[in-house]
Design a protein that fits this description.
The structure holds two protein chains of two kinds.
Chain A (H helix, E strand, L loop, with lengths): L7 E3 L2 E2 L2 E2 L2 E2 H21 L8 H21 L7 H17 L14 H23 L13 H16 L1 H33 L2 H5 L1 H38 L5
Antiparallel strand pairs in A: 1-4, 2-3
Helix pairs in contact in A: 1-2, 1-3, 2-3, 2-8, 3-8, 4-6, 4-8, 6-8
Chain B lengths: L27 H134 L5 H15 L1
Helix pairs in contact in B: 1-2
The chains are: A mainly alpha, B mainly alpha.
């Protein structure tokens, strides 16, 4: 799977750690640059009647702020810049990774990247929760049920809480990996059938059409997974902010 | 194997690796390091520059709309006030005009009455004067007629009877005829 390979471009070793600037790092920089430049350029007209590009930025602003408000309440808006950045970084990584011809590297198709993001969210939830509620934060693991039930429920709650960063990371990683693998597999079918000659060459149109359909689906998934990542972050933040409070 | 070093370079020989490149632990430090840098940079740019820009545009629009609505409300109230003022001014002007017309009419009426009274008085005075003069003339004429009648009667008697008649007798006779005739 050549498209997932990480190759060093500029070797860099600090304190025994290999921190080389790789093609993955390059694409992270591209994602950051495209995202920052696109959003800033689009937002810069600041017209009273927004331009089309300005509308995109304002709609995404309202989209993310509404998402936070519905999942974590008004207090969650303190984390708006972080959630917005997270959403945009994942979205641009996913979408840029889908463009053909430029041989992109999909940053979010690497488990370590998604896990690092998810683990950061996990740590942030714990830090915010402890800072806000002190040790009372751990009441998160004890729902209001009869004491006997707690014997069963507390371990379940703890395990589900600890598995959050894993599920968050794996969901995004697996979706990206599966999508790109599927496109790769259909691609090899097209090449294999087309070069086989005869009737098989004619049949090769079918996996080709499948690729077209899957690419469309992958664009949907690219957006959807960014949304899921962001809204789960909001839901976890809601736990830290409001414990069992519902919004 | 190179993988034992845990270096990124180990992926330079993909044929040596079974499984996914994602599972190459050697790339993890580099990935996390550059992710932290790029994500941090993006966060900083969006947080400090882009998001305030977007929020500013949205806020400015909201303020503009609210301000415009407020101005419209103020102008509407002003217009309503002006209309009320206009109507009250119109009503008072109308009342004033009616008052003025009534006053004028009364003034003219009294003037007419006065002039009519004066004219009546003058007319009555001259009528009385005329009557008085008529009466005087008539009285004078009556005296003249009686005298003429007496002298005529005396002349007639003198001519018929050939005897003179005194003026007194003639007068008495005329008076007697007068009373009989009356």
């Amino acid at each position: 799977m050549e498209q997932f390979e990480v190759r060093p471009l500029l070797p860099l070793h600090i304190g025994g750690l290999d921190l080389s600037f790789t093609n993955a790092s390059l694409w992270m920089c591209i994602v950051t640059a495209v995202c920052a430049i696109f959003l800033t350029m689009a937002a810069s007209p600041r017209k009273l009647v927004p331009t089309r590009m300005q509308s995109i930025t304002e709609l995404s602003y309202m989209f993310v702020s509404d998402m936070i408000r519905s999942a974590a309440g008004t207090e969650g808006l303190k984390f708006f810049p972080f959630v917005f950045t997270l959403f945009m970084f994942v979205l641009f990584s996913n979408v840029i990774g889908l463009f053909p011809l430029i041989h992109p590297f999909t940053v979010t198709s690497h488990i370590i990247v998604t896990f690092a993001l998810a683990f950061f969210v996990f740590l942030m939830v714990i830090v915010v929760g402890l800072a806000r509620h002190g040790l009372h934060f751990f009441s998160l693991f004890a729902p209001k049920v009869p004491v006997v039930m707690l014997l069963v429920l507390v371990p379940i709650e703890v395990v589900s809480f600890l598995s959050r960063p894993i599920s968050l990371a794996v969901r995004l990683f697996a979706n990206m990996l599966a999508g790109h693998t599927m496109l790769y597999v259909f691609g090899t079918f097209v090449i294999g059938l087309a070069t086989a000659g005869g009737a098989l060459s004619v049949i090769s149109i079918m996996p080709f059409l499948a690729i077209v359909a899957v690419v469309a689906l992958e664009f949907l998934i690219a957006f959807l997974q960014a949304y899921v990542f962001a809204i789960l972050t909001c839901i976890y933040l809601n736990d830290a902010l409001n414990l069992h409070g519902h919004h | 194997m190179a993988a034992a070093e845990g270096t990124v370079e180990s992926t330079a020989e993909p044929a040596e690796h079974a499984g996914l490149p994602q599972m190459d632990v050697g790339t993890f430090p580099s990935q996390v390091f550059w992710l932290a840098i790029t994500f941090g940079l993006l966060f900083f740019v969006l947080w400090r520059k882009t998001l305030p820009m977007i929020a500013g545009a949205i806020g400015a629009r909201r303020e503009q709309i609210e301000g415009d609505l407020g101005t419209a409300e103020t102008l509407r109230k002003d217009a309503a006030g002006a209309l009320a003022g206009y109507e009250s001014a119109l009503a008072s002007a109308r009342k004033g005009a009616v008052q003025l017309a009534n006053d004028n009419r009364k003034g003219i009426q009294t003037e007419i009455d006065q002039m009519k009274a004066a004219a009546d008085a003058t007319a009555q005075a001259s009528a009385a004067e005329a009557e008085r003069r008529i009466a005087a003339e008539r009285a004078k004429a009556v005296v003249g007629v009686r005298a003429a009648a007496s002298s005529a009667a005396a002349d007639i008697v003198e001519r018929l009877l050939g005897m003179p008649v005194s003026a007194d007798e003639a007068d008495r006779a005329v008076a007697a005829v007068e009373t009989k005739g009356a």
